[in-house]
């Protein structure tokens, strides 16, 4: 399923160039490693300039890429900065929003309207379920199966890519001799993965994905080692009868 994907690091790159779009208005620099919690990498929801930029960006994206879907991220948003921003706090009060998750939901719903206006469909990581799901959004479930199950129960399409079963950047053997990786994913676990949970209507499982996140993978030799043979196992799982489509995503930050 071809799509274009953006994420929080895209926002950080935007904020590094245009600090006025963040809540703190501070100058930040894009790091190849994970950003600390002290770094404001979320866009100010109440800032009109945020929406002017997003409209311009997605207008160009929709023209450049013929794919049906645009993945807008939405994961690991540092919501604490919204709660410290007077403009965002005022927006929450005006709209009757009680939690940061509800403010993100407000953002995602407004963003979905923008994406639809460009003739595309929106995908977001499972955090977009929290606080209220945008009406037509596809949920990509990465923190486990729950986000996907919740999305399917809300009659939304879902892509299953749970971290414990499909993240190929995790170590695959003895930790004492393995290259660095966050956690372990054995080949046997990949083969045992069941992408369609019990009690969930399969028609809402749009597909599945194995992800190789490469911020800790320094070269192609390491990338090949982390990818194979587990990607083959996951492809076999998704290739079983009545299973959804599969995809392999090599993602760099």
Provide a brief overview of the structure.
The chain is an alpha/beta fold and 253 residues long. The protein is 37% helix and 12% strand. It has a six-stranded parallel β-sheet with strand order 1-2-3-4-5-6. It has a two-stranded parallel ribbon with strand order 7-8.
List the helices and strands and how they pair.
Blueprint: E1 3-5, H1 8-17, H2 48-64, E2 69-71, H3 80-83, H4 86-95, H5 100-117, E3 121-125, E4 138-141, H6 146-153, E5 158-160, H7 163-166, H8 187-192, E6 205-208, E7 210-213, H9 220-227, H10 230-238, E8 248-251
Parallel strand pairs: 1-2, 2-3, 3-4, 4-5, 5-6, 7-8
Descriptive account of the structure:
With 253 residues, this protein is of the alpha/beta class. Helix content is 37%, strand content 12%. The protein has 10 helices and 8 strands. It has helices at 8-17, 48-64, 80-83, 86-95, 100-117, 146-153, 163-166, 187-192, 220-227, 230-238; strands at residues 3-5, 69-71, 121-125, 138-141, 158-160, 205-208, 210-213, 248-251. A 6-stranded parallel beta sheet has the order 1-2-3-4-5-6. Strand 4 (138-141), helix 6 and strand 5 form a beta-alpha-beta unit. It is globular, with a radius of gyration of 19 Å. The protein starts with a strand and ends with a strand.
What are the main properties of this structure?
globular; 10 helices; 6-stranded parallel sheet; 253 residues; alpha/beta; TIM Barrel; disordered N terminus; two-stranded parallel sheet; 2 domains
Strand count, sense and barrel status of the largest sheet are: 6 strands, parallel
**Total E-strand runs:** 8
Shape: globular
**CATH topology-level fold name of the largest domain:** TIM Barrel
* pLDDT < 50 runs, ≥5 residues: 1-6
Average pLDDT for all residues = 88
CATH class of the largest domain: Alpha Beta
């Amino acid at each position: 399923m071809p799509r274009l994907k953006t994420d929080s690091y895209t926002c950080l790159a935007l904020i590094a160039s245009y600090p006025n779009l963040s809540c703190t208005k501070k100058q930040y620099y894009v790091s190849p490693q994970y950003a600390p919690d002290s770094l404001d990498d979320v866009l100010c929801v109440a800032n009109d300039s945020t929406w002017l930029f997003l409209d311009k960006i997605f207008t160009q994206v929709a023209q450049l890429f013929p794919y049906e879907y645009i993945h807008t991220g939405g994961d690991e948003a540092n919501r604490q900065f919204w709660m410290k921003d007077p403009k965002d706090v005022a927006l929450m009060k005006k709209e009757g929003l009680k939690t940061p998750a509800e403010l993100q939901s407000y953002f995602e719903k407004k963003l979905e309207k923008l994406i639809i206006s460009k003739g595309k469909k929106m995908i977001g990581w499972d955090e977009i379920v929290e606080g209220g799901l945008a009406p037509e959004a596809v949920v990509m479930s990465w923190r486990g199966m729950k986000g996907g199950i919740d999305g399917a129960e809300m009659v939304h399409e879902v892509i299953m890519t749970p971290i414990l079963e499909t993240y190929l950047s995790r170590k695959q053997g003895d930790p004492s001799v393995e290259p660095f990786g966050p956690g372990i994913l054995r080949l046997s676990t990949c083969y045992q993965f069941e992408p369609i949970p019990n009690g969930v209507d399969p028609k809402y499982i749009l597909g599945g994905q194995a992800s190789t996140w490469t911020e800790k993978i320094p070269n192609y030799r390491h990338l090949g080692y982390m990818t194979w043979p587990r990607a083959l196992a996951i492809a076999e799982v998704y290739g079983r009868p009545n299973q959804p489509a599969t995809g392999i995503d090599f993602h760099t930050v």
